[in-house]
Specification:
Number of domains: 2
Shape: elongated
CATH topology of the largest domain: Alpha-Beta Plaits
Strand content: 15-25%
CATH architecture of the largest domain: 2-Layer Sandwich
Structural class: alpha+beta
Number of helices: 3
Radius of gyration: 26 Å
Number of strands: 5
């Protein structure tokens, strides 16, 4: 209402048109938000799972595990810095050291991890599983033990 004349500034017809336009914009915005959320959740389903056999018993020697923790720290920093996903942690036991990372592209995760893995002398049988979706989805297994360079 215009306080000077006591009349409505916008006729009712203009208000209803404005409200309809506002409603349409809200519906379009909501659709975009849902689509982006769905895309983000689907993208986060890919995984890079790095499995390294331990050479000394089910849980490895102290030196071996400390060296793998150092590798893990480098890997975590590189993934965070590159914004290709997130590092989720490790499992140690049953003769393996396994590291988990997730993101929208397992190939991009591997591209970030590969140069770091190549710097370490990893035992034979070390491998990366590139999983292209939720558990049960297609996986590509890549051997990563090189034995040439040490750190």
């Amino acid at each position: 209402m215009n306080h000077i004349t006591g009349r409505a500034i916008c006729p009712l017809e203009s208000r209803s048109q404005f409200l309809v336009c506002l409603l349409v914009l809200f519906v379009i915005w909501g659709s975009c938000v849902r689509a982006n959320a769905k895309e983000a959740s689907n993208g986060a389903e890919q995984a890079l799972i790095i499995t390294i056999p331990l050479t000394n018993g089910k849980s490895g020697s102290e030196d071996e595990v400390q060296r793998l923790f150092k590798l893990e720290d480098e890997l975590k920093k590189a993934i965070e810095h590159s914004h290709v996903g997130e590092y989720d942690g490790n499992e140690i036991g049953e003769g393996t050291f396994t590291m988990y990372a997730y993101g929208p592209s397992t190939d991009k995760l591997f591209d970030v991890a590969q140069p770091i893995l190549a710097k370490y002398r990893l035992p034979p049988g070390s491998r990366a599983a590139k999983r292209y979706g939720k558990p049960g989805a297609r996986e590509e297994h890549v051997p990563i033990g090189n034995g040439r360079q040490t750190k």
